């Protein structure tokens, strides 16, 4: 979770269950919303590289039955915000997600606090806030 300037303040790394990537994306979105509310944020911009999950959050498409419980929790949590938007970001541009996915969790949930952020993550957050795009070299 970072502010509009790309300053990191908290994140969560968890062991992931064996579910579809769309369900994982929705669970990540829900945890992000919960973090925003915990930090008393009233505005939130959600980005994800699953166009399906982002469409579902925006009320488009036909979600699978396995997604309905998480989507309901997302919808309920979003009502606590004054303003939000959810947008798709191409996987190639989502360098931040790749960095966080490399974070290992052995037992349960690990909170990543601002003083634990390493230089590469900090650079990725700042670049993302500035709108810098990263392209995959073929």
UniProtKB/TrEMBL annotation:
- Which one of the record's GO molecular function terms can you name? nucleic acid binding
SUPFAM superfamilies hit by this protein: Ribonuclease H-like
Q: Which Pfam families match?
A: RVT_3
- Source organism superkingdom: Eukaryota
- Stretches assigned to the RNase H type-1 domain: 1-103
Which InterPro entries does this one have?
Answer: RNase_H-like, RNase_H-like_dom_plant, RNaseH-like_sf, RNaseH_domain, RNaseH_sf
What is this protein's record name?
RNase H type-1 domain-containing protein
Give the species: Acorus gramineus (Dwarf sweet flag)
